[in-house]
Specification:
Layout: H1 4-8, H2 26-48, E1 51-55, E2 58-60, E3 67-70, E4 73-76, E5 82-85, E6 89-92, E7 98-108, E8 112-113, E9 126-127, E10 130-138, E11 146-153, E12 187-197, H3 207-219, E13 223-228, E14 242-247, H4 255-266, E15 270-275, H5 282-296, E16 301-302, E17 331-334, E18 338-341, H6 345-348, H7 360-380, E19 383-385
Parallel strand pairs: 12-13, 12-14, 14-15, 15-18
Antiparallel strand pairs: 1-4, 2-3, 3-6, 4-5, 7-10, 7-11, 8-9, 12-19, 16-17, 17-18
Length: about 375
């Protein structure tokens, strides 16, 4: 298989410098254009690598037989050459059996003069037509092409089928797990507004959410979390993905604050309610939250363990423990729009706990539960960016 180092040895370091009166022969023209072509391929290979940029999914025929369809797409091979498949292509595996791989390779036709109205004019330029080839070969057979799919075909009479289980495809099923995809990945941008409310709200409220955002950004490249702390409920919050409202002690909500929450919910914002259990009158915050939800017409129910909060991306059997640490916290959800905790996760996310020495598994569990919360919010509302 060709490597980047192999390709570097073929790159010309000499660039044609035009001068008045120079003879532009075919060799000079070829050298001038070859320089730019090589640099473009070097950039593609070194900056993006080889693989499928877009499309090129492989699907079985319907009804299933020995053929598959390669959908249109764009790829870069191991020498930085671009492969464009503009139309769906049907490919027949024929009698091939065993552990197989479907391979896409770059190709070029012989230089030919391009006819105009069916006639080749004298002095017409020669055109090199870029093309591609698709072949099926044994899994252990070396190839410089790009793998589109693999399949364990047990007999030549067996039809090629798709699979509903992408992780464990069975015999005669298309397996696309070896496909290497490159290019600009889309990122979900999750914006979080932290609102600490109540007479006992500390200055560092929201620092735990900031810490959680750093962890998510480090673990999950497909998600970008930004946090705005010290927000007020009398401002426009509809542009956020989540409002993390932390109640501290006994407080009330103004009509402006209620309107802000209502508008946010209508805009698809997830409102997460949490109570600080570090303050003496922590139950008062829960009472205010209940009154707020009643006014908004939102009913909460216990989050079932089948909810994605318990499984995406981290698996949980119970709600993660919060600041108290002695038992699992409670979690309730209302219409998918509101999630209510009584855990003070903002505290545990930055290492604070009622326990003198916080167990490592306690911290990790809380952070992973927070990652699940961020993923859930991202699924409801996030800004896509390249």
């Amino acid at each position: 298989m060709a490597t980047k180092s192999d390709f570097l040895t073929t790159v010309s370091m000499g660039r044609v410098k035009p001068t008045d009166g120079m003879a532009v022969t075919a060799d000079v023209w070829e050298r001038a254009h070859s320089y730019h072509l090589q640099r473009a391929r070097l950039h593609a290979l070194a900056s993006h690598g080889s693989g499928i940029v877009a499309g090129l999914e492989v699907q079985p025929s319907d009804p299933a037989d020995s053929s598959v369809y390669v959908l249109p797409g764009y790829a870069i091979d191991y020498l930085g050459r671009e492969i464009i498949v503009a139309q769906p292509v049907s490919f027949d595996l024929g009698t091939a059996v065993g552990n197989l791989k479907l391979v896409l390779s770059y190709g070029e036709g012989e230089p030919k003069p391009e006819p105009v109205n069916g006639r080749v004019e004298e002095g017409a330029p020669y055109i090199v037509q870029e093309a591609f080839t698709i072949e099926v070969i044994n899994m252990d057979q070396p190839s410089t092409g790009l793998v589109l799919a693999t399949i364990n075909r047990t007999a030549k009479s067996e039809p090629v089928i798709g699979t509903d289980d992408g992780q464990q495809p069975g015999s005669n099923s298309l397996d696309c797990r070896m496909v290497r995809r490159i290019g600009a990945a889309k990122v979900r941008r999750v914006r979080v507004a932290v609102v600490a409310i109540g007479p006992d709200a500390p200055q560092d409220a929201g620092d735990g959410m900031v810490r959680l955002a750093k962890i998510c950004n480090g673990h999950w490249p497909g998600i970008s979390v930004t946090v705005d702390s010290h927000k007020n409920l009398d401002t426009t919050l509809t542009g956020y993905s989540m409002i993390y409202l932390i109640g501290h002690g006994d407080f009330g909500l103004s009509s402006e604050a209620m309107t802000a929450i209502y508008n946010a919910l209508q805009a698809g914002v997830t409102v997460v309610l949490d109570r600080s259990v570090r303050v003496a009158d922590y139950e008062a915050a829960g009472k205010t939250f209940d009154e707020m939800l009643q006014a908004l017409g939102v009913e909460l129910a216990q989050v079932p363990t089948s909810h994605e909060l318990f499984s995406i991306p981290n698996l949980f059997a119970e709600v993660a423990r919060g600041y108290d640490g002695t038992q699992a916290a409670t979690a309730r959800v209302g219409d998918g729009r509101v999630i209510a905790f009584d855990a003070d996760y903002d505290a545990i996310w930055r290492g604070l706990s009622r326990q003198q020495a916080v167990p490592r598994e306690h911290l990790r569990s809380a952070h992973e539960w927070g990652e699940n919360l961020i993923h859930y919010v991202a699924g409801r509302k996030a800004e896509w960016e390249l």
